[in-house]
Design brief:
Pfam families: Cons_hypoth95. Helices cover about 30% and strands about 20% of the residues. Helix 7 links the parallel strand 8 and strand 9. The longest helix has 15 residues. By secondary structure, the chain is of the alpha/beta class. The chain has two domains: about 60 residues, no CATH class; about 200 residues, Rossmann fold. The chain is built from ten helices and 14 strands.
Length: about 300
């Protein structure tokens, strides 16, 4: 930063042009009334064109020679408050006041489902109003139990046995199974709110809580950890877009939940390829209900009985 001082020229007061006695006025004007010449303040020009060899001390000495404050000219200007605010917003510093966050609305339920047959027929069941839990449609559920009852040799009810309801949600499939003759149902649902506010109240309302076992875990985890006797019936009604049916059916077929005499209901979406077999079981039926499909797997003896 270079500092240079430019002295201003002396200015004299103007003298009237049309006065013949100008020389007399100059010679005889009293000294006390004569106006003194005035000098304009010196102009200080600062620039950054000093050579690199000039040190900071030399700059300060130069400014002192002209009666100037070196700290005033050599210090960096302090940014204004508005400028600091703008820079702080650009760099992400400072308190950012965003839009108020919307409070999460409590999840609500309604009674749109019902038990279709058996001892609890026509009893209403709770289901979430939101679409995060999608119960099996009643027309699909009615067709599924009709196929199972016919394949088991008893068109009016199910053969007594144990049922495994995977992705149970509201529990409508498992409750239908108990209502139609199953002795015990295991419900697998990972959402704690669905279990406490939907599934358990439905079991209490229908009087089937003592016939039920609830597992609040992921289906994949349950299939990996479960050891013991196979189930007589298994229902698989997952959220369509959140599972890979190829992997899911392979895991079921390799687990201990199925046996030689098991039946499996699988609800799957349109344009999904389902194999003709699932472990030791064969496909007994494959129905379409709009964009929803239903596959039923069972033992080979049930296939022969159904064809006959």
């Amino acid at each position: 930063m270079a500092v240079s001082v430019i002295p201003s020229p002396i200015s004299w007061p103007p003298i009237p042009a049309n006065n013949n006695n100008n020389h007399n006025l100059l010679n005889h004007r009293p000294l006390t009334t004569a106006k003194r010449p005035y000098r304009r303040p010196s102009t200080v020009i600062c620039s950054s064109s000093l050579k690199s060899s000039s040190s900071a001390e030399e700059k300060r000495e130069l400014l002192k020679q002209y009666g100037l404050d070196p700290d005033e000219f050599l210090s960096e200007p302090t940014p204004s408050k508005s400028r600091r605010n703008k820079e702080g917003q650009k760099s992400g510093r400072g308190k950012q006041v965003g839009p108020p966050q919307e409070q999460t609305k409590p999840r609500e339920t309604h009674k749109l489902l019902q038990v279709l047959g058996g001892t609890a027929r026509r009893k209403k069941l709770l289901s979430p109003k939101s679409m995060d839990v999608r119960p099996m449609m009643e027309v699909v559920k009615g067709a599924a139990f009709g196929i199972l009852q016919a394949a088991g040799g008893c068109p009016t009810s199910l053969r007594p046995g144990r049922w495994l309801d995977l992705y149970s949600g509201t529990g409508s499939v498992g409750i239908e199974a108990i209502s139609r003759g199953c002795s015990e149902v295991h419900f697998v649902e990972m959402d704690p709110w669905v279990v406490s506010d939907v599934l358990r109240p439905n079991l209490e309302w229908t009087g089937f809580l003592e016939n039920s076992v609830i597992h609040t875990v992921r289906v994949e985890t349950y299939l990996e950890r479960t050891k013991g006797d196979p189930f007589d019936y298994i229902s698989v009604t997952p959220p369509y877009m959140l599972v890979d049916y190829e992997i899911l059916m392979k895991q079921i077929s390799e687990s201990s939940v199925i046996g030689d005499n098991s039946f499996i209901l699988v609800e799957y979406p349109f344009r999904t390829d389902m194999h003709e077999t699932c472990g030791c079981l064969v496909k007994l039926a494959d129905r379409r209900f709009g964009r929803t499909h239903l596959a039923v797997y069972g033992p080979k003896w049930a296939e022969k009985k159904r064809r006959s």
